[in-house]
Amino acid sequence: MQAASSNWKPNIGGRLPKQIQRALPVYAALILFIVWLSYGNSFSPKFEAAQVRKRSTNGQKTISADLLSQKSPTRFPKKIWQTWKIDPLGFEERDLNCARTWTQKNQGHRYEVLTDNNDLYYVQTHFGPEGIDRSDIVDVYTALSAKIIKADLLRYLVMYIEGGIYADIDVEALKSIDRFIPDRYNEGEIDMVIGVEIDQPDFVAHPILGSKCMSFCQWTFMCKPGLPVMMRLIENIILWLTELSKKQGVPISDLKLDFDEVISGTGPSAFTAAVLAEMSVKTGYEVTWDTFHNIPESKVVGGVLVLTVEAFAAGQGHSDSGNHNARTALVKHRYHASKWPTAHPRYKHPVYGEVEKCNWEVECVKMWDYNTALFKGLTEEEKQKLIIEKNQADLLKQAEDEDFARRLEQYEAARAAQEVANPAPAPLLQPAMQIPVEAFPAQQPQGFPPAQPAPAPAFPPAQPAAGFPPAF
User: Fold this and answer.
1) How, if at all, do strands 192-199 and 220-223 pair?
2) What is the DSSP letter of 172?
3) How many whole angstroms separate alpha carbon 147 and alpha carbon 218?
4) How many CB atoms within 10 Å of residue 135?
């Protein structure tokens, strides 16, 4: 019985009708199809995630470009980003003071600084094979030697991947980030928050000022991650650097850039051009600077909230920028880290200097234009004479400034030494309240009339000194 039972096989086919036997394959296929529909979606995302999500060597998740561009968070990430030479532990006092304003006013936000020591690792992690796999971006960033170009590009790269708010290291927070979006707007309908920096369209035809007379501020702005406008800007910069490298006949690491090339290539002008182009795509019509000229209050165009110039660029002395005490002023740019123009100088006329020193004052610019135009018509001998006179005047002023600084230093040292030798006595305690004597009635003896003040002696009115005519 045991042997027989071990060789026994179920004979299901012999027990089922032939019609059912013939339908079994169909039933089986139908069951499998239902199972696939029910559980297929739970399998495919895992496979898809394996394709688009990878882990870097430090375990940090990175996301593909396609998946990143599809993300549309309702709220802005609570992240504050800055970039600088060193990490916050080594900050100078002035940089530390600015940084503290961001963390103290926004205690619910994460704060991070990318430095010259870890920026490349960040770019390789998020834009290399372990990230969105854009080797062209990694290669260009790696090749760059111009620090201001890298600083501009890095902020756009970070904002594309992470989102949040970016601020230059010398920007102080005056208000909390919660104040950046007025209550009348729905945060879920806004992808980006920017502010006007320069609003001087009257100079658009000027040969030097024209390319930078209308721009949004990019020393402070806020984004959601994966915005097409950020990738548009990044790709514009990559293309510009590549073409400029061919034009100059040198590798990207050896490019020579002046001030205006930086502004138009990666700075505010480049930033503005990309934003306006993306607004045009979103709205379906061409958006120009006219939309933001002299705006009395913030407005949203194509998902971008544009704040008035006072928000991020108060106190400039132009563009109706107001002052930092205004209710709408959100940040204060202190400019102490803005030394890059020394490596990328502006155009400086040998006699009349930089037209930017006019700070967009119309009459000053007109005078600069007039003088430089006259200079062009002079003979070489006359030009050299003016240049020599200008240089001598500059040397004289420099000597005067140095002498004044030296005397001021001596005065401060002498005063400090005197305070050490003769310390001031401790101040006497003052009464909590001093009441004038006049507030009390004078005690008069009985039978005497009240004291009368002695009459002041009569003096003739003062006469002007002889020989001097009266002032007019």
Assistant:
1) antiparallel
2) E
3) 16
4) 11
Helix (H, G, I), strand (E, B) or coil at 385: helix
State whether residue 1 is helix, strand or coil: coil
- The length of the chain is 472
In angstroms, the Cα distances linking 242 to 55, 79, 139, 143, 262 are 30, 32, 11, 11, 14
Place of tokens 């132009």: 318
Residues 132-180 pLDDT 10s:
999 999 999 999 999 999 999 999 999 999 999 999 999 999 999 999 9
Location of structure tokens 């123009």: 341
* Rounded Cα distance, 242 and 134, in Å: 15
CA distance 138 to 136: 6
CATH 3.90.70 is the classification of domain 61-342: no
C-beta separation of 147 from 339 below 8 A: no
Summarised one tens digit per residue, pLDDT across range 57-89 is: 334 445 555 555 555 678 999 999 999 999 999
pTM to 2 decimals? 0.73
Whether the Cβ atoms of residue 63 and residue 131 lie closer than 8 Å to each other? yes
Instruction: State the pLDDT at residue 452.
Output: 45
CA end-to-end span of the chain: 141
- Confidence class of residue 427 from pLDDT cuts 50, 70 and 90? low
| Structural element, H or E, at residue 44 | helix 18-52
Mean pLDDT of 200-229: 96
Tokens of 309: 């110039």
Contacts 24+ apart (CB under 8 A), 320-325: 320/199, 320/294, 324/174
Best CA proximity match to 362, nearest among 209, 197, 195, 196: 209
What are the residue ranges spanned by the domains of the chain?
15-53, 61-342, 355-408
Residue 157 contacts residue 123 (beta carbons within 8 Å): yes
